[in-house]
Structures are given as structure tokens and as C-alpha cells.
Amino acid sequence: MGNLIWTIAGSDAGGGAGIQADIKAAQSFGVHACSVITALTAQNSMGVEEINGVAIKVIESQLDALEQDVQPKVIKIGMLANEQQVEFIANTLKRYKTTWQTPPVVVYDPVAVASSGDSLTEEDILPAIKTHLLPQVDVITPNTQETQILTGVYLIGPSAVQDAAKAFNELGVPTVLIKGGHWDYPKGYCIDYGAHQGEEYWLGNKAINTPHSHGTGCSFASSVAANLAKDYPLKDAFILAKAYINQGLKHATRFGQGIGPVAHCGFPHDINDYPEVIEADSWLGQELDLEMGSEQVSARDFAKIETRNLGIYPVVDSVDWIERCLKAGIKTIQLRIKDSSDADLEEKIATAITLGKKYDARLFINDYWQLAIKHGAYGIHLGQEDISVANLAEIKQAGIRLGVSTHGFYEMLRAHNYRPSYLAFGAIYPTTTKDMTGQIQGLEKLKHFVPLMHDYPVVAIGGIDLNRAEEVAKTGVGSIAVVRAITEAADPEAAIVELESVLK
Ligand SMILES: Cc1ncc(COP(=O)(O)OP(=O)(O)O)c(N)n1
Ligand SMILES: Cc1nc(C(=O)O)sc1CCOP(=O)(O)O
Ligand SMILES: [Mg+2]
Q: Which Pfam families does the annotation name (predicted)?
């Protein structure tokens, strides 16, 4: 079931953490949270005064009531008060995973210590967590202290963080998001680390200086859970959770005499709240000693395009189509030849570039950046994999514009590192032109993307036709790239006129 999670966690009387934070964070991302309460904590902004663990049969009745009605895609686990609860929840999760038609994804925030420093468990439950619970967990979101307690790995540097993630894998957790809020490495920065399906993600930003951080752990994990429930990929859920916490810390205020709660301010719309995706060639990447791809020659700040509105942007595979579209008045166009064995490839690229100049149009060459430079193209379009291997410095030096494909928030921030000339975002809808399985963004993401990336010309691509062009244009995007809407139209010239009229 989409847009719904369960949170199994403790109640915080102070309203800043636990169930209360979970519900607010999920709500901020438009996700409904059902709550199963494991403990009633008597706490306020100064500390935890009492923990009252809920009886197993009471937890069970809450779970039963929910199970009969709504089975979520994602279950977030927070505070568990005692060993009995850990074992019961672990067994229950095991049953869900083996009997539900769609096994739930379990996100676990190993709450052991409140931000006040007080313990949140009635006894030592670590052995039970390791033996019973972790093998049922899909995503764990520990802070540095929790990481050290659970794995025994002391986080003295980036490679120790990677070792700790591997230790979690060995304990049965496939995906690990380690929050570096208390790490202070490099000094004054907050670095988070993610390991998921063989990929690694390092996110970083300057530490936000506020004492009011109560509930950040719960809110982070619930943000991850909520965005996973929306079918966002893990790396995008990670980005959004981090941006959400940064936004919340910037707006956090005191509500008592001690540590105030992180604020809950809805979807993070300010790009300044987003972390940097740390790449090996950046300052933070070097501080963390990240390994650089051997072929990558990096550069940033590519030649600007004179307008943010590139208009209807046909992506076509032949010189004939280039000429036909240019004759019909198209001003931005791409040659995308996917047959690399094409004997006439260079000639086609050269002819397309000449045509672009003749019609005073912005002609981009897809993939073949060396040939594009050689023949003086207006621009080059590269995918995320290409920017890891292309010689970006050469493209920049040639003064050629660079467009970059992005599919989601992580790739958006990765492309943003290079300050390209435009950003493409897709696939907005399913398409038959290219296999985009698992990469369909939908309109909601585009609506967030356009204002976040307002400094760039933004191009929407994927499955867009005349019927859908209007709702796409309403997001404020300045350009719509299409293949079939033109190449498979009964009357391509008429299709161009109609599509152009939607964007105007
Ligand atoms: C405008 C625009 N956006 C995205 C793409 C896709 O580029 P890429 O990721 O390099 O994939 P291929 O097109 O090479 O399959 C594009 N071509 N144009
Ligand atoms: C080539 C391409 N790139 C995409 C991306 O999202 O990166 S979607 C896509 C195919 C666009 O074709 P159509 O307009 O026929 O759906
Ligand atoms: Mg490409």
C-alpha cells in the first residue's frame, strides 16, 4: 500500500522524538503513519524520567488491528524497551516477511540513548537486538555512537565507517545509513554514509550549529521510511531525509528549558538544505580519501545557455530528422545515435552540427563527446555514467555546453556538483523508447525538481506526448524533450506546432 507506513516506537511525552516525530516526518512527505506504541516515556527537554514498556499483548493487539486492515510497504522500528519486546517484534517481522504477499521493508533506527544522554531501554537489550532483530531489518539508520555499540567498530575515519557497514551486513542488515551528526570529521562538517546493493553514498554539509536537535534520529529514519513507501529509490530517500533534517535543524526552536525538538517544516524546498553528494574529486572527497575513477578528468561551471527555456527539444537518431525538425522551426535538438558500429557516424555528426549552425539552433550530440568537440557542436548531452569517464575539462575548455541526465534527487545533486549548462530529468512517464525500469519519476518529483534547480534550464523527458505536455508545462519546466511524440506522429510538423504552443 503506497503512502502509508507503520511506526513501531515509543511515545515521547515531550513531543519531540519517538512516535510523535515519526508521524510528523511522514506527514511532511505526504505519507500517513500508523503507530504501534512500545513504551510510554516520561521525558521532557531535559531528560528521560521514566520508561513504561507496553505489555506484549498490548503491542500485539495494536499490530493485529493494523494487520487486518492495512499492510504497509514499509515498517519503521524505533525504541524497543526490553528483551521481550525485541524478540516479539523480531518474530512478528519474520512472520510478515514470510506470509505477506508483499514482504514489508523494515527500517530500524536503533534508539538506545536519547539526545539528553539518558538510556532509553530498561535493560541491556543489545544481544537480543543482534541475534533476533537485525536479521529481520532491511535498512538500519544508526548514529556514530549506536554504530560503535552495535558493531564494535570505533569510527576513527572513513574506512572504519565502511568497515562498520560491512559489520552490519554480517549481522544480517543489507542496507546501512550511518548518520555522522556527532562525528565532526572533517571538523565542522556533518558526513553521512550509505551502503546499499554494492553502491556507496557519501553525503556532507557544514554542521548546523543548534542545540535543538531532539528527535533528529527518529525523524531521519521516518523520512527514509516514508520516501521508500513512495517507491523512491534508497539513495533519493537518503537525500530527502538528510535535507529534511538540515531544514528542521535550521528552524528548530526551544520549547522548554533544555534541548528543543527538530522542526518539522514539510518537504525541503530550499536547495541550501540539501547535502553535497561527495565525489572523489571534491574537497570533501579528498578529505575523506575517496577513490577517484581512473578515467575521470573533472571540471565544473560549463558554458551557459542564453535562455532557461529551451522549448520543445526533439531527440532524434538521423540527420534527416534533424533537418526536418529544424525546418519546422525547432531551436533545440539532439542527435542520439545508439548504433556505435555506424560506419558513417562521424559524417552524420558533422552534418548535424553544420545543420544546427545553418538554422541557428542549439544542437546537442549525445554520447560522442570527442566527435562533438572535433566538429564544434553547440552542446553535448551526457548520462550519469558518462560523466564519470568523459574528459569534462576538455569539454569545458572547448566552450561547449553540457547537458546532463538525472533520474531522481541523488543524481540531481551529483550533476549539480559539475554546474552543467542544463539538467534533464526523467523519465517522467513510462516510455517504450528506452528501458527506464525503476526510474520513472512522475510529476510530483518534477514539481519539486524545477524550483530546486531554478538556476538551470531544466528539461523534462520520457513518455511525454501532446496529452501530457500541458501538465508537464504547468510545473514551470522550460523545456520538454521528446522522441516518439514527434517521430511517431502522423504529421510531425503539426505535432511540433502543437507541442510548442503548450510550452508558450
Ligand atoms: C534531453 C535528454 N535527456 C536525457 C537523455 C538520456 O541521456 P543518457 O542518460 O545519456 O541516455 P541515452 O540517451 O544515451 O540512452 C537524453 N538523451 N536527452
Ligand atoms: C532517451 C531517453 N532518456 C530518458 C531519461 O529519462 O533519461 S527517457 C528517454 C526516452 C524518451 O523517449 P519518448 O519521448 O519516446 O518517451
Ligand atoms: Mg547518453
A: Phos_pyr_kin, TMP-TENI
Distance 442 CA to ligand 2 centre (A): 13
- Assess whether 436 and 474 both reside in one domain: yes
Q: Binding site annotation covers 367?
A: yes
Question: At 87, which CATH number?
Answer: 3.40.1190.20
Portion of the chain with pLDDT greater than 90, in percent: 84
Cα separations in angstroms, 216 against 139, 232, 403: 17, 21, 36
The parent domain of residue 383 ranges over: 311-503
Which residue puts its alpha carbon closest to atom 7 of ligand 2?
426
Asked if residues 335 and 322 have their Cβ atoms less than 8 Å apart, the reply is yes
How many angstroms does the Cα of residue 383 sit away from the middle of ligand 3?
5
Number of domains in the chain: 2
Per-residue pLDDT tens digits for 35-73: 999 999 988 878 888 889 999 999 999 999 999 999 999
Amino acid identity of residue 279, one-letter, is: E
Encode pLDDT of 295-336 as tens digits. 677 899 999 999 999 999 999 999 999 999 999 999 999 999
Nearest residue to 301 (alpha-carbon basis) of 386, 164, 401, 192: 401
Q: Are residues 225 and 342 in the same domain?
A: no
Q: Is 433 annotated as a binding residue?
A: yes
